[in-house]
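User: What would this chain look like folded?
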Amino acid sequence: MTALPSRYRAPAVQYPTSGRSVWLGAALALGSTAGFAVLLAWCWLGTSAQPAWMVGAAFVLWLVASGVAWRFWSGLPAGTLAWDGQVWTLQCVPQTMLRGALTVDLDLQRRMAVRLAATDGSTRWLWLEQNLEPLRWGDLRRAVYSRPGHSVAGAPEQASEGAGPV
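Assistant: Here's the prediction, encoded as structure tokens.
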């Protein structure tokens, strides 16, 4: 197998990670509020047949789920995500650099939830938004969905304009 011509490879790109995204925070808060409203409606409309421990357990479950969502949101790292054609690198503030493979878990076209599986075994979730760097968003999306380039030592790349992948 030969390496793809450079015109078919995703470009090297650097893209900022926002950390605490207002949009994501609002979406998580809306989900938590909707869950609380459902619990209140359940209590108001029909818990007379339910034991008190079940109602209490439902509220504790809602509280735990809301806490996990808040902790997830508040723990999102701010920094720079970079693709060099081979590996992803996350440079976080302060002075943390992770290298690894990136997986898209949610793609909303203008926003993406991705997971960086670092070579040290750790995992970082990242929330990426188009509005942070609109001019580089297309490059980022191409890089996210591309495979790492495989360079073959001594193998020349195709140079002719008309030649395409076989």
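Confidence is low (pLDDT under 50) at residues 151-166. If you want, I can go into more detail on any region.
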